[in-house]
Amino acid sequence: MTTLSGIITPSNVVTATSTETLTNKTLTSPTLTTPALGTPASGVATNLTGLPLTTGVTGTLPVANGGTGLTTTPANGALDIGNGTGFTRATLTQGSGVTITNGAGTITIAATGSGTVTSASVVSANGFAGTVATATTTPAITLTTSITGVLKGNATAISAAVAGTDYVTPTGTETLTNKTIQAGTFTNGYTEEVFTGNSSTAITLDLANGTVQIITLTGNCVYTFPTPVAGKSFTLVHLQDATGSRTVTWPSTVDWPSATAPTLTATASRGDKFVFTAISGTSWLGSVAGQNYTV
User: Is there a contact between 236 and 215 (Cβ–Cβ < 8 Å)?
Assistant: First the structure.
């Protein structure tokens, strides 16, 4: 080749295999074979393939539809998903519960059914410093099985959900069983349960039937009393029937004053009143409250 002096020189000619630096050149639809791009000043990655990117990415990646982006700003390096419209939140349904790992700790939301999640249903572990909002309204109460005891709280919802025999109301009429009342004040008096029966020749008194026992003596009667319990007492009124002169045999657990049992009224259709009080688990202290009543 003939050299054109001043026009073509080795320093400004591009050859097929040599290494040269091109400046301010525009390449249209080139095919690059195993290139090392280095660090470009700028670029548009519209049609790149071979994703995802696994290393070497810093800063914020935009999320479509106006999201605030993905970032690795948390101290533990976890991925932070911005609150944008391009991110769809999942709906958590009742099941075995949901566990959310929060870097240094774990939040476990138990499967407590539908309704508002409160702080009572969140278990904080390993120093989780978050807070959970408390429900501001009382949910409706639906009970599918009977309950016992005294319910407190939303009386309207409770009364609509359970039968009247399963709970205690401030003004209703209910029967309480095996309850201990401490320092109670009874207004408008109180009424003891009364049992009425005939003695025949033997009768066993049961205080479960009443603490006032009214017995008509229809034969010479042998009494059997309940086992003494310290603090218990009862009243016994026994009446002679139309025949009269019926006798009684008292239990050995009765302790009379001076160890002497009282003489009974023998007149037909008349009655005597006795009071028995236990101060230990061994005996009843008997006393005569009145005799020869016309009843």
Answer: yes
Alpha-carbon distances, residue 108 vs 42, 125, 206 (angstroms): 45, 9, 56
Q: What is the pTM (predicted TM-score) of this model?
A: 0.47
Tokens 């978050």 belong to: 130
Q: Which structure tokens are listed for 175?
A: 């029967």
pLDDT at 160: 54
Contact 218, 200 (CB under 8 A): yes
Contact 126, 149 (CB under 8 A): no
Q: What is the rounded distance in angstroms from the CA atom of residue 126 to the CA atom of residue 100?
A: 13
Mean pLDDT, the chain, rounded, equals 73
Residue pair 271/238 in contact by the 8 Å Cβ criterion:
yes
What CA dihedral angle connects 154, 156, 158 and 159, to 10 degrees?
Answer: 150
Residue partners of 222: CB distance under 8 A and separation at least 6: 201, 202, 203, 248, 249
- Per-residue pLDDT, averaged over 32-55, amounts to 71
Q: For residues 260 and 258, give the distance between their C-alpha atoms in angstroms, rounded to a whole number.
A: 5
Pair 13, 1: CB distance under 8 Å: no
Q: Is the pLDDT of residue 156 over 80?
A: no
- What is the CA angle 270-276-278, rounded to 5? 170
Q: Residues 6 or more apart from 207 whose CB is under 8 A from it?
A: 226, 232, 234
Beta carbons of 106 and 100 less than 8 angstroms apart: yes
Structure tokens, 249: 């045999």
Parallel, antiparallel or unpaired: strands 194-198 and 248-249: unpaired
How far apart, in whole angstroms, are the C-alpha atoms of residue 207 and residue 225? 9
- Report residue 116 as tokens: 């508002």
Helix, strand, or coil (residue 284): strand
DSSP state of 97: -
